[in-house]
Amino acid sequence: MSSTNQSISAAERLRPILRLVDKTSQIVRAIAQPSFVQLVLRVALAVPFWRSGILKWDGFLQLSDTAVTLFTDEFMLHLPGGPYPFPAPTAMAFLSGCGEITFPILLVLGFATRFAGLGLLFMTLIVELTVPDGWPIHITWAAMALAIMAWGPGRISVDYILRRLSALPTSVP
Predict the structure, then answer these.
(1) Residue 60 φ/ψ, nearest 5 degrees
(2) Are residues 97 and 120 in contact, defined by beta-carbon separation less than 8 angstroms?
(3) pTM for the whole structure
(4) Per-residue b/e over 115-133, b at no fewer than 16 CB within 10 Å?
């Protein structure tokens, strides 16, 4: 009989802790709403590419000399039997700079979001071939891009608004 009383007593002592854990879980769920998480994920992936992209330009569609030099002299593709220089380094610098500006803008707006995620996933693969020792950060970028591609932009996005507008019934005159 005394062991039963001790069991009840132990359960009673745990009850406030369990309530605290439950309340904390409710707060976390209230903050981490899926659409908010999707927005944060989009912005988090956009930032490093945007920051890299703005360094490649001296003006509207005017590549910086540094960007071309990087693709000409510094960056190499680390493939089997390599490393190899980038083919058409000026074109590669231009495409990279365009992607690093365009895809982050699309992500932040949530417009053509899955396409932008795919573009940044492809760019991440190229970056990994260029800087193979950077895999810890590159795998994070790849995971974010894949999550965006899989689950979409969420409700805080242009894509969501356009999808809602296209679902509105049309009136016939």
Answers:
(1) -60, 120
(2) no
(3) 0.80
(4) ebbbbbbebbebbbbbeee
